[in-house]
Amino acid sequence: MFRSLHIAATGMSAQESQLDTISNNLANSNTVGFKKQRADFQDLVYQTIRAPGVQSGGANMSPTGMQVGSGVRMVATSRQFTQGPLQSTGNPLDVAIEGTGFLVVQMPDGTPAYTRAGALKTDAQGRLVTSEGMPLEPTIIIPPDAATVNFAADGVVTVTVRNQPQPIQVGQVQLASFINPSGLDAVGHNLLVATGASGDPIIGQPGVDGRGTIAQSMLEHSNVEVVSEMIGLITAQRAYEVNTKVITAADEMLRNVTQMR
């Protein structure tokens, strides 16, 4: 009887974790470059009362065993790197990645980080930076007298300067790919950092070795599907309610037992 109380409690805790994941997805449904997360669960250890295949008398063998579970727990949150919808912005410094790969930026401590958020700007030195001032790697500097900026699909950045008819190449955007992108560690600010699980970054030119290409004047929005998340929200809420009913039922049964004379 007490086992059912504990099992239901683990179920309620699991649904709370599911709700936390869904609420974070919904909160970031309009965040540029955000990739939704999915909560992964697994059942807990079992108490084996009778193992499958034991002798049940003579030459007879039990075809099934008898096991009692002890509940559920959340073991991981996996990030889903499906392509988010692209939206035209009209801003020449906005770039989106069509396909796989990440923009490489330099954090304030000098370490690299990776992002899908391509809302770029220029700083006081003319460098292409993120909204928080983190420069792209490798550094790309836009001349102050640049009239237009163009990003090619392969990442080549060219500008046109007044009184010069031919465009000038000022750099090339590089993309990073990973063997296991789900192993990247999210540190906020639309940034991910490499871990031992993700493997080392493989830096290269857009459109080469399976990397995506660059789309100018576009931004990739979150891949969160609000309708799917709302369905998951309702499912988690109902599962939580069912587990509370299990606790109520177990409590009622225990009360009946204690009142027996």
Tell me about this structure.
With 261 residues, the chain is of the alpha+beta class. The protein has helices at 2-27, 226-258; strands spanning 37-43, 46-50, 55-57, 60-61, 66-69, 72-79, 86-88, 95-98, 102-106, 112-115, 121-122, 128-129, 146-151, 156-161, 168-172, 175-177, 185-188, 191-193, 202-204, 213-216, 218-220. 23% of the residues lie in helices and 33% in strands. The protein folds into 2 domains: 2-80 and 239-258, no CATH class; 86-220, no CATH class. The strands form 9 sheets. Strands 10-9-16-19 form a 4-stranded antiparallel sheet, with no helix packed on it.
Percentage beta strand: 25-35%
Question: Helix-strand pattern, N to C?
Answer: HEEEEEEEEEEEEEEEEEEEEEH
**General shape:** elongated
Count of DSSP E strands?
A: 21
The strand line-up of the biggest sheet is 10-9-16-19
Assembly annotation: single chain
Mean pLDDT score, rounded?
Answer: 93
Structural features:
3-stranded antiparallel sheet; 21 strands; 261 residues; 4-stranded antiparallel sheet
Structure in a nutshell:
The chain has two domains: 2-80 and 239-258, no CATH class; 86-220, no CATH class. It has two helices and 21 strands. The protein has helices at residues 2-27, 226-258, and strands at 37-43, 46-50, 55-57, 60-61, 66-69, 72-79, 86-88, 95-98, 102-106, 112-115, 121-122, 128-129, 146-151, 156-161, 168-172, 175-177, 185-188, 191-193, 202-204, 213-216, 218-220.
